[in-house]
Structures are given as C-alpha cells and as structure tokens.
Amino acid sequence: MLEADVVFDLPLDRPFSYKVPDALRVTTGQRVSAPLGGRPRVGVVVAVRPEADETLKPLQSLVEPAPILSKAGLELGRWIADESLSSWGSTLSALLPPPPRAKRAEVIAPAAEPARTASNQAVELWTDAEREDRLVAELGEAPGGALVIAPDTESAARWARRLDAPRLDSGVGPGERRAAWFASARGRARVVVGTRGALLVPLSAPGTLVLLDEQDSAHKPPGPPRLHSRDILLRRAALDGSRLVMLAGAPSVESWQRADSGSVTRVGSPPTAWPQIIAADTRGILRNHPLTLPLTRAIADMSRAGRSVLLVVSRSAGALGCNDCGAVIRCPDCGVALAVRRDRRSLACRLCARTDPLPERCPGCGGHKLGPFGWDAERVEASVRRRFPRLKVSRTDPDAQVVIGPPALLRAPRGRPWGAVGFIWLDGLLRVPDFRAGERVFQLLWAAAEAIGAGGRLIAQTLHPDHYAVAAVRGKHREDFYRQELEFRSELGYPPFRRLCQISARGKTGAGARSLLDEASEALRGIPGLTVYPPLALGAAGAATAARMRFVVKGPDDLPRRIGPALRSFLERGRRSHGMVEIEMDPVHI
Fold first, then answer.
1. Most buried residue, 203, 278, 365, 493, by most Cβ within 10 Å?
2. What's the predicted TM-score (pTM) here?
3. Nearest in space to 2 (alpha carbons), one of 36, 31, 45
4. Mean pLDDT on 18-43
C-alpha cells in the first residue's frame, strides 16, 4: 500500500500523510479528497512513497483521474510559496482551476512535463508602440502552446476575443476555466488567456509566456500567491526554457534594471507618433479653477476638430505640499512624501514611521499655502460645463466630447485616439507617500502619450513642470527617466537594489495589534543584513486606538529565506484572541 503526502489550503506549510487504498491510482500533482479536521477537504499530492503506515487515515477519492500539475508545476509552486512566505497548499489552491462541483463527463489529460532544455533565449521586453499587433502576429505562428497573462479580467476578456482563445480567469464560470486548463494541457488550445490563476497552466512545448502591461500593479493584488506575476513567469521560464515576452511602453523599474544588467532584452524603437507635451505651471493659479490656459485651448481646439478630450482627475494624495512653490514635505531619511495623519495634527513616514508636527510654513519658500489640495471629478465637471456649455461633458459616457475620470480610463480601448489628455492635478500623483510615485507618474504620462498619438496634445498641470518624469516623456527619452530613478533607488536602498517585506497586524484594539508587531519585530532581532523599521499605526487617531498597524523590513535579495523561519509561527498560528499577522513580500504599495 502506498503512502501519499498531501498539502491543503491552510496556513500550515507542511504536508499531511495518508495511506492510499488499493483501488486508487495516485501520483504526484493529482488532486484528492482526504479527511482533515473531521470533514473531507481537497488537497494536492506532492509525494508518493512505496510503503504506508497502517495507522494513517486513507484517502477518500480522486478529484480528477489524472494529475493536474506536472512535477515542474509543483516545483514552481514550492518556489512561489517560499518566496512569498506562504504555505505550499494555499499557493497551489490559488493557482488551480476550481474542482468539479458534480461528476460529469470531462476530457482530462495529465499535465505533461516540460522539455527542460537549456534555453539561450533572453527574456524579451517589448516597449514599442506596435508591440500588441506584433504579439498577435507572432502568437499565430508560435510552434507550441502560449499563455497570455493579463492584469485584470477586463483585459483578459478583450485579449481572449482578439486571439479567439479560451479564458482562465474569474470573469468566466468554473466549468469554462476547467475546460481551458485541460484544453491547454491536451494541446487542443494553442493559446490560453488568463490572469494570475492561470500562471501554472500546462502548455505544449515549446511554450511561450506573455505578460501584458508588465508595469501594472494589478499583477500583484492582495491575497495568495503573494508574488508578482512577472517574478513567477521569470522563474517559470528559467525552469522550463519557455520563451517569455513582457509588454510595456513604460516598464517597471525592476524590469528596466534587468535589461540594463543583460538578463532581459529590450525590443523596440523610440516612438515616432507623439503628441505635443505641455507642462502647464500651476503655481498660484489652480486653487480657484481647474483649467489652465493651455488645457482650455486644447479643449476648444479638439472640439472644433471633432476629437474627444480626457481629463484625468486624481483625488488628494494625503501628502502635504506647498501650493505656491510646489515643495513636498518629505522624510529626510527615506525620501518619500510624509503622509498627513487622519487626525490632521501630524505627518508620518509610511516606511520608517517618523512623525513630525504639521509645519506652519513651507520650508522652501516660507509660504503659508500648505495642504493636501486637490480637485475631485464633480468639481471639475461643473467647471468645464460652465466654461464650455455647448459641449457634451460626462463622467460616465466614454463617447462624450469631454470625458472626466480616473487614470484607469487610459487603459480602456478606443476606436479613435484621444485628441487631448489633460492631467488636472499631476501633483496629486507625485505627492503619493510612496517611493514609486515618480515611476507611476511617468508610466501614466507615457500611456497617455501613446493613447493620443500624433497631432494631439498632452497637458500636465503641475507645480513641477521640470520634473524628470515629465521631461522624459516630453523628450521621448525613457532612458533619462530610468537613469535618475535608479540613482534615487540605489542611494536610498529601494527595489530593485533591496527587497521589502511589509508585516501588518489587525487587532480588536491598537494595543493588541502593537503587541503582535512587537512579537514579530523581536523575532527578527539579530538577523544580519536587515533594516527593521518601527511600527506605524494605520488607524484614525494613532497607536492608542488603531486596530491596524504595520512595519516594514528591508533586506537583500534572499530576504524571504532570512526572515521566513523567524516568522513562520506567526503565519501558522493564524488568528489569535488579540488579532492576526499578515506578511506581504515585495509590496507594490507602501
């Protein structure tokens, strides 16, 4: 009788052993139903041994008649769990299609092992404006299977239609997701489109992996697997020799740095169809009306030309700045904008937890106009309607002459390019208390320029018209932005030069959350190479009453392996009487 080790969707990072009844044919990578905690649960078999302990409980049944994962898939799942400080079972559960709800006829093929041939192909980073059209053409000629990973379900639906491919994401039903998984495993579906839940889908060799909008933070949403899709695909390509293509007009700083180091090959040329870029200086003129003269002219000119205008509105960022000279109050140690606490009495650094009283004057110009000033969409709409009463202005109709909304509208597909895009208050994005604020502004501006093209205008209303992100987009010089951004990150020890881990605690009281974080911080004491920052209260009135707190750990590339053993007990104990601890490796938002 055989013995099988099974992992479950639990915070416990260890398998449970069961004896295999003679009537069941079980192999690694197969899903089974087994008794656990007094009821049957679905798990994945990760090991099978020839002799079983007769005192073990038996497996109950097979979920599928064939393994859903290859040994390579199990190995990749194990790596993801180790890198994200998650359990193996929870990681696999998040990356597999749902089990069948009832017995029905399905054509199921076992997941084939990849060829694992040595691959001399470098990972490719496509940055040119024609990247999407070229991808469609190349996938049509790909010799093996292809997996296309989109950042969200809307993008997945759009690309599935474009490629006439099955979907593997939460936007379709469980049956459709299972059908797509096994069609790919059998080689019946040459291309599969999905989101994070498709990262382990088997492909017929030679495989092609594609990451759309590589820079999009939606590739790392909350919850397991707590790792960026980019990093998972990079590891998968290294393990099985698949070709990996990443698409981004303005890539993440991490991927650009990899290209500089030679591990990623940039493919593409500088853009040719580029709009006029105008940085409208708003010092002293934006508090009473949201439209500067350049933006007002752009709306008038484009309406006469029959082209639509998008006005991008971002709410107040929560950081303090001077609305006269543009200076932003930053942490002197971390270089990120200090956040205004919800009690409106102090500033706090979200990284090192430094707190300072609210200043009365701007440290740059001595002015008194300090605040987290910003415009909301409703006020902008009212102002535009007063200025242009004959135009159709809307926050809901994408076909209006003037559309007002969040930056996400730049990703929405359009039959015709925007005539102009105006950022009402770019400083609201620059003032976000996060070291990635400049990168996100650059990526939004670049996306806007691509969405406009030749003959249009991009107007950025800002107190910082000479900011290097704005200058790089105006000059079509991506390398200028990344050079300065990498210098900033290197000097202060931010990714990609150091890794971050965010450890947060939720408790019934602030004291309970603080107690949990103090335990976690103490567990890390003495581990070499770490910078452990003090806890920061995230509640409404500070540490005394906040029910949620967090602290950040900074360390080298092997940070998960350094801190994992010390933090494992916090993950496995789960919720306790005074709260629970959550651990997030490589957070995309600080």
1. 203
2. 0.92
3. 45
4. 95
